[in-house]
Inverse folding.
């Protein structure tokens, strides 16, 4: 056993036993980054007026009338402690690092006292000054002096990219305790009318009538408004005092510069500051930036002196060796030129830390919006990058705007000229991916996302404006969804839940445009649905109808049943509020689709009628028996029943009835066409005993049975004329609806003993057809010689006459019903009632006029 490296047996364990025993696994040093169960989507329920809004980031928000039990009561005002917390949250965050004292404003004392006096009298004041004139700093000092003037204290608001309606809601939430409640317009005006506070409103962007509406809605508030000269002035009736803020004088400028530098100025520096004051017109921002340049110059000189005093490390070359260019520049640091002092952003940024320069690139890419200091480590890739915000504020490159920071006046243009916007799209894409992950994380509250709304919307705007999103530098992104669409989907529900609805609308419109550009129909439907819900909450019903119908149409094409039902419910609510029927998109249903709750529009029938799986049952007799001489129209007209399907069903019914009529008429015409053209043919003569049957007892072809007992045809037509001749309503002989004949017509005495077609008595009728089958032969059998002669009359059978000698029936003057296409004719014999083309009285006989071929 090696004494230096002892084995298991040295510790009292057997080597074989120890080797066979498995070692326990170590505790993992890092958490398991495998696949976890998916987290639930963050859904929030809001009350907007009398509506209950459920923000659903998956299928789209759902909206319905709020039940009375869930409607919040009139909100209560915040307590003094809550007002102090709200005022602290309205200020921008303090940058990390050593805190520098605020610069004094000795030349602004008169303006400060004037503003406090006006506000104490309840007057509203408009402070006008150019960017960089120190307007925000003066407003902060006046707000501190007015803390005890009003019962509701001081309310700080920002008007940057805010509308009058947004400011009213911001004022409501700053004074009242109403979580997840957005009051309707009447309730909002009633609440803000009772607010008595000093409202400090900076960076306002509107004036004129819009400003008058804001002031009229809050009669108990005194406004201290900060604006630039390019903002429209209030109207003359608004009674708003205006105070103009100009630049500093030369002495005040020198005092401010010495305070920023932290020492007295040399003679050269005073002369340099005098030239700067003349060029900048005394703007305080220029002196703050000039003081930052002098501090950087002092730091460079201090580093050069330290090198000269203490030397360098041992591995460095000796001092009398080749002198580097950087050391030579540090030894001789001149004052900045007047041009560099007028546009100091490039020079100031070049002397900052790498993290601060990277943060400036993100600010330039986001249109001047500086990300929150908590996001800088993730964006820059440095754990200490949050300290970059302190560097930027000290040198005057960023200034506070509301609860955040933006690039100071003129810095954006100067940095773009210095090359900070060369990789703008890649930088904006990196920020968008970070905000997509952050805004969609369940642990991030909607209020935090709403506070970062301007930076998120700026990143979204850059991606939408780009012709194509930049590719992932690492090449590991396998998600094919557009980054702009992803960011809009993640941020829009958070803006809605955070009651920042102006940002919600901007995110939805940008997302819809991005989805349209990439052809993502699913995301287009989502964004249009959300825009419709937002318009419904704001009372813009026409816009809501348009957006919802667009979303329903897109989701119907995608067979998205859940989304379609949610859209139809919202559209039903729009129809209920407008009192109009919903559009066609809300009524078009797909097979097996879930039916929404009963709404107003479901009680009305569609304009084209309710579709039926089978055509309606109609009276086909009206399609077959037409009483006019005009040809039967194949398509009957039914006004008031529009639609393509109804038209197709009517065509189907008419076509079937027409086919039946053509079959019947075609059979008759075909049988008539089989007779030859001989004028002496028996077909032109009417006989009482046509030999149509094959035998005396055979009635297979519809012939009459033998009347006599001896089987010989006696010529009595009583059995033939006892059958009905009127086909009845159905147009077919031999059916149950045929009327019963009232008399038995018998042949009258004819001196010549012959019967001509169209002449003589019309009481003689042939046997009605008992079958529609055609004859078995193309020609009927030729009659015998006895049949071609005059028929034998029966002397015992005579027609019945009344006492005046007039027959009881006059068939020639009684119109008979006809099913022929030509309609009834008084001179038409009764035997041709089922013929398609019967000859008129006096017409010559033709082969088609045969009457004994009717079967």
């Amino acid at each position: 056993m090696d004494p230096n490296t002892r084995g298991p047996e040295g510790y009292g364990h057997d080597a074989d036993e120890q080797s066979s025993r498995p070692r326990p696994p170590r505790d993992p040093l890092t958490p398991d980054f495998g696949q976890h169960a998916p987290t639930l989507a963050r859904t929030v329920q809001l009350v907007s007026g009398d509506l209950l809004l459920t923000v659903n980031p998956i299928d789209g928000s759902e909206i319905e009338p709020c039940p009375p039990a869930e409607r919040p009561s009139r909100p209560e005002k915040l307590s003094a402690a809550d007002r102090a917390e709200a005022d602290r949250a309205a200020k921008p965050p303090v940058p990390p690092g050593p805190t520098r004292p605020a610069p004094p404003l000795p030349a602004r004392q008169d303006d400060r006292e004037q503003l406090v006096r006006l506000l104490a009298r309840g007057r509203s004041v408009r402070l006008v000054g150019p960017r960089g004139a120190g307007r925000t700093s003066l407003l902060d000092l006046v707000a501190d002096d007015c803390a005890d003037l009003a019962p509701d204290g001081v309310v700080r608001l920002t008007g940057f990219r805010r509308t009058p309606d947004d400011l009213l809601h911001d004022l409501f939430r700053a004074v009242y305790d109403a979580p997840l409640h957005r009051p309707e317009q009447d309730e909002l005006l009633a609440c803000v009318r009772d607010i008595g506070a000093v409202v400090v409103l900076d960076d306002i962007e509107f004036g004129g009538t819009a400003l008058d509406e804001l002031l009229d809605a809050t009669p108990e508030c005194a406004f201290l408004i900060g604006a630039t000269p390019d903002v429209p002035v209030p109207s003359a009736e608004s009674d708003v005092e205006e105070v103009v803020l100009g630049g500093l004088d030369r002495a005040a400028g020198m005092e401010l510069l010495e305070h920023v530098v932290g020492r007295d100025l040399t003679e050269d520096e005073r002369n340099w500051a005098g030239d700067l004051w003349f060029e900048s017109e005394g703007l305080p921002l220029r002196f703050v930036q000039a003081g930052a340049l002098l501090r950087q110059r002092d730091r460079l000189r201090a580093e050069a002196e330290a090198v000269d005093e203490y030397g360098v490390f041992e591995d460095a070359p000796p001092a009398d060796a080749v002198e580097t260019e950087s050391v030579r520049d540090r030894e001789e640091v001149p004052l900045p030129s007047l041009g560099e002092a007028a546009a100091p952003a490039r020079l100031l940024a070049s002397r900052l830390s790498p993290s601060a320069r990277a943060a400036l690139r993100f600010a330039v890419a986001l249109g001047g919006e500086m990300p929150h200091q908590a996001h800088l480590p993730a964006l820059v890739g440095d754990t200490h990058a949050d300290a970059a915000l302190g560097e930027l504020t000290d040198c005057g490159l960023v200034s506070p705007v509301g609860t955040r920071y933006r690039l100071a006046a003129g810095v954006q243009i100067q940095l773009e000229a210095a090359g900070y916007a060369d990789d703008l799209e890649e930088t904006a894409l990196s920020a968008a991916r970070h905000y997509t992950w952050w805004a969609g994380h369940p642990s991030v509250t909607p209020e935090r996302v709403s506070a970062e709304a301007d930076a998120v919307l700026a990143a979204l705007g850059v991606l939408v404006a780009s012709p194509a999103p930049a590719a992932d530098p690492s090449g590991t992104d396998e998600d094919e969804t557009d980054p702009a669409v992803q960011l809009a989907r993640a941020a829009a529900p958070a803006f809605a839940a955070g009651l920042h609805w102006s940002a919600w609308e901007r995110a939805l419109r940008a997302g819809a445009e991005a989805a349209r550009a990439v052809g993502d129909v699913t995301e287009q439907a989502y964004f249009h649905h959300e825009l419709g819900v937002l318009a419904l909450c704001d009372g813009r019903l026409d816009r809501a109808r348009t957006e919802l119908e667009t979303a329903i149409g897109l989701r119907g094409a995608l067979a998205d049943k859940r989304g379609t039902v949610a859209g139809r419910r919202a559209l039903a609510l729009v129809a209920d509020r407008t009192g109009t029927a919903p559009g066609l998109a809300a009524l078009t249903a797909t097979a097996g689709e879930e039916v929404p709750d009963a709404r107003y529009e479901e009680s009305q029938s569609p304009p084209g009628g309710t579709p039926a799986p089978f055509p309606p049952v109609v009276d086909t007799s009206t399609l077959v028996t037409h009483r006019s001489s005009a040809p039967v129209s194949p398509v009957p007209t039914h006004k008031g029943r529009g639609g393509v399907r109804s038209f197709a069903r009517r065509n189907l019914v008419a076509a079937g009835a027409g086919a039946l009529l053509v079959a019947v008429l075609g059979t008759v015409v075909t049988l008539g066409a089989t007779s030859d053209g001989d004028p002496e043919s028996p077909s032109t003569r009417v006989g009482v005993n046509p030999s149509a049957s094959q035998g005396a007892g055979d009635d297979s072809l519809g012939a009459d049975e033998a009347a006599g007992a001896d089987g010989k045809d006696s010529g009595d037509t009583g059995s033939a004329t006892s059958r009905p001749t009127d086909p009845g309503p159905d147009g077919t002989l031999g059916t149950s609806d045929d009327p019963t004949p009232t008399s038995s017509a018998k042949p009258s005495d004819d001196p010549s003993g012959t019967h001509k077609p169209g002449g003589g008595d019309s009481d003689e009728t042939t046997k009605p057809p008992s079958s529609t089958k055609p004859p078995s032969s193309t020609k009927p059998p030729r009659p015998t010689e006895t049949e071609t002669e005059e028929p034998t009359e029966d002397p015992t059978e005579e027609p019945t006459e009344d006492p005046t000698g007039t027959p009881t029936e006059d068939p020639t003057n009684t119109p008979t019903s006809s099913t022929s296409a030509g309609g009834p004719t008084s001179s038409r014999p009764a035997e041709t009632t089922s013929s398609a083309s019967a000859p008129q009285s006096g017409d010559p006989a033709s082969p088609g006029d045969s009457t004994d071929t009717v079967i």
